[in-house]
Every structure is written in C-alpha cells, then in structure tokens.
Amino acid sequence: MKVIVMHEVMAPHDGVGNxxxxxIDLLSKQYEVCAYAYDRKNPRLPYxxxxxxxxxxxxxxxxxxxHHSVYWPDGEALLKKAxxxxxxxxxxxxxxxxxxxxxxxxxxxxxxxxxxxxxxxxEFPKAHWICCSKYNARDLIYLSKDQxxxxxxxxxxxxxDWGNTTPDxxxxxxxxDFDGVNILFxxxxxxxxxxxxxxxxxxxxxxxxxxxxxxxxxxxKDENLQEYTDFVETRMKELGVTxxxxxxxxxxxxxxxxxxxxxxxxxxxxxxxxxxxPVVEAQYFGLPVIALDASAVPETLGKxxxxxxxxxxxxxxxIHVVASSKHQPGGAYETLVAQGHKNYQERFTLExxxxxxxxxxxxxxxPK
Amino acid sequence: xxxxxxxxxxxxxxxxxxxxxxxxxxxxxxxxPIFLKHPxxxxxxxxxxxxxxxxxxxxxxxxxxxxxxxxxxxGLKA
Lengths: 368, 78
Hints:
A: alpha/beta, Rossmann fold, B: mainly alpha, elongated
C-alpha cells in the first residue's frame, strides 16, 4: 500500500505544514509515502506529479490522506477521480464572519471552505476523518461516530527538535532588562485572533496597574488585510496603548524560544482556533497561559488552566495576579506552569501523538 | 495553590476595578458587516465556479473557455 498525502500548499513552518511533515516521517517507517501539493514550498517532501498522482489514486490498494484546511476545488476534483480509500485530516476553517468587513476575498474563501467541508462529507460518505480537536469534530454532521477520530496536530511534537535551540541572547537581555510585565502573543494579525480584545485588556491593565507592561506580538501582518491592520493601529491610538505593544513580525526559532522562555505570561484571546499550537508551546516552555473560553483553546489547554470569559477587565486582573506571583513559591504562576507542563507531557509529546495517530490510522484502514 | 484559590483571588482583585469605565464606554464600533448582507452574490460566485470547473475538461467547451479567458484578459489590459 502507498499513502499519498495531499494539501494545496505544503510549507515547512505553518500550522498545517508542521502537521504534514512529521506525519509523512512517521508513516514512512511502515509504508511508502508520497506527497502531492499545488504549491510546494517544503523541499524535504517526496512529491509526485499530477500524472503520477492520477495513476496512484486509480489503484484501490493505495490510500489518500487529504488535509482539509482551505477551499481547494482542484483537490476535490482529484479526489473524485480516486478509486482508493480516503482519510481526511481536518484542521478546521475560520468562519467567514470574522473577515467581514475587512476583506471580501478572505470572506469568500472561508465561506466556500466551510461549504466544501459539508460537500466532502456528502461526496465521500465512507471516508474517515481524523480531526485535530473535538471542537473540529463538531463540523462533521453527516458522518457516523465510528468515522470520526480525534488526534492532536503533530506540530507540538516538533518542539522536541526546535525547543532545544539556544535562545537569542539579545532578546533574552531585552526582556530581562524590561522593568515590567512581559506579555506574549503568538499569531498572525487577523480578525479571529482577538486583537480588539487584547488591546482592551491592555488598556485596563495600564489604567489599574500602571504603564509598566509590554505586549509582544509575534506574527506577521497580512498585506491583504490592510483594513484590519489599520483598524488595530487606530484602536491602539484610541486606547493610548501604542507604547505598550511591540510587533516583531516573523522570527527565527532562537528568537521565538527566547520570547517563550523570558516572558511572564502568555495571553491568548483568540476567538477561533481549530487547535491552537502556541498555547501548547507556552506550556512546553513553562509559560503560564491566560486564554479566552472560545473554540478549541480550552480543550487544547487541558484542565485547571486560566480560561476566562470575554471580559477584558477580568483578563487584565488575571494577568496581574499570575505575573505578580512569579517568584512566590506555590503561587498562581507555579500552579499554572506545573499543570500546563503536565498537560504537555501527557498529551502532546511526539511519542504520544504518533501513538494516537497510528491507532486512529489503523482503525481507519481496518476492513469493516 | 489550588486552581479554585487562583480564581477566588482574581474575583477579589476584580472588585477593585469599579472606578474604571466599563467595557462599553471604551468600545469603538467595529466596521459594519458588508458581505453578510448579500449572501446571494457569493452563492452565485460559488456555483458558477463549480459549474465551470465541472465542464472545462470537455474538449470543445474547454477550448472555448480558454478563448473567453484570453479575450477577457485582453479586454482588461485595454
């Protein structure tokens, strides 16, 4: 049996790319695996051409793992030509409402992406779906329970590689020298990440506890979402928190590692996540997380973690309570870090994810 | 410290916030939704796209679509 992994774009460092590469590495130990993508940005993967793909998927003994995270009509057309079984790996699609009114194209592609999720379930009624979270599984309304499996994204498993990178000394010094609370957020500047809430949290924090606080945002701005970027910048000025925010853009592993290790708290008020990799990374590095009770984030964070409703004042208080107990033995900070680390060890090591994935994979391919 | 104790501490500290404007006071309105107001437009775009994709592999129709696209691009350039 040959396994063909498909996705429109295969890049080395994005969320889906970080799931695809370790999955291929794992399956390659037992099967012959190849990859098919329209946009091949990761040179490490064993790609096949469209002609080779058509010949492979015509053989009923082979198997397709189709990663569904975007609207890819040509991918769906290729699946219709397949005679071999299909497993869908579902990463979720951001609801279009977040992009209204900032970008018509983003709105449209999310809308049709969600339509395609339903379409794929109807067109391939026997296929199994492996979701990254239970939250994602809620979208699979046309399938029976035995067709749905939940296995976390492989991305946290890669921490065992890049997590040991020596942290950037310059960033370490900058954060240590700052006489205030270092808050971290990792995520692109897009509407579903909750930037408007984050700015309000910062506003209340400054009002109540003073200006000695810095929110460092690691993630690039999307040039096709300029209207949203403008909205965020205007809001920063309105709330008078421009001095308290630093946008770093994309960073290297060494820089990211330094931010995770030297920050005081991670704030995640994202309103839609199909999994949320950064909160697991924070748990790995021993950084307490304060998050919004929305989408897959609480599920990913695990039990006894700081999950709050959308009340910016309360979130600001939580930041203060957690950050101020950093050097207090047995305090809030230590409790959250210990619980977070336990969550990572029990659920997200590469060994555990690989084990869960193989169990689900073998269940999918077992004759029924 | 137990998790419940952390939550209690937050609740106690939260009470000190009474003198700061409420969330509604600092709220600026986000821009009005635009696209949600006319979903039919996107339905048409979606089904039109799928229909074209479904028939473009038929030789004569495929060639005709390529020709139409060529004309459209020339038109846009002009």
